[in-house]
Amino acid sequence: MIRRDLAEAAENMPADEYAFRPTPQVRTFGQIIGHVVDANFFFCSQAAGEKSPATADYEQISDKAALVKALNDSLAYCDRVYAATTDAAFIQPMQIANVVGTGSTNTVRGAVLMYNITHNNEHYGNLAVYMRLKAHVPPSTARVQRRKNQ
After folding, report:
1. Coil, strand or helix at 106
2. Rg of the chain over CA atoms, in angstroms?
3. Most CB atoms closer than 10 Å: which of 13, 53, 65, 145?
4. Degrees to nearest 5, angle at CA 47 with 125 and 52
């Protein structure tokens, strides 16, 4: 569900509004999309025990088309990692690499994947607020409204 919400939010926000930020202290809409892309590649590659397939710091990209493609690529990569995760792999101990100022941490693979979902939901909440501030209906709400109107 969250992957669909993120992909549709990224697609539905007009390109000229990717630079929107409600206050100077927060990320732009595009920077949040880029941050989610960076995080998806990081967390899913950590859980898979692979080198990240990321080819850029996506938070620094401002072009909508490039960010939508990168988001979809990161979601597809995570889909593969989730699908390949067995019960045994889910509880397998691992050490996640340095996460912004925390150093490396001992955990299990499943916890990393669950955190990725939590992180995506957190930032979809940001994106939904940004969309509403620009008078757009977030995808999750739009789906509920369509069902009610059928």
Report:
1. strand
2. 16
3. 13
4. 85
Backbone dihedral angles phi then psi of residue 116, each to the nearest 5 degrees = -60, -40
CA distance 36 to 87: 26
Q: What is the DSSP letter of 50?
A: S
Residues 6+ apart with CB under 8 A from 133: 20, 22
| Other beta carbons within 10 Å of 113 | 21
pLDDT in tens, 49-104: 999 999 999 999 999 999 999 999 999 999 999 999 999 999 999 999 876 667 78
Asked if residue 23 lies in contact with residue 121, where contact means CB atoms within 8 angstroms, the answer is no
Distance CA 53, CA 142 (A): 33
Question: The tokens of 100 are what?
Answer: 């912004």
Start-to-end C-alpha separation, the chain:
21
The answer to whether residues 12 and 137 touch, using CB atoms and an 8 Å cutoff, is: no
Whose structure tokens read 């509403």? 132
pTM of the complete model: 0.94
Q: Which two tokens stand for residue 54?
A: 């990321």
Tokens of 124: 């979809």
- Return the sign of the alpha-carbon dihedral for residues 132, 135, 139, 142: positive
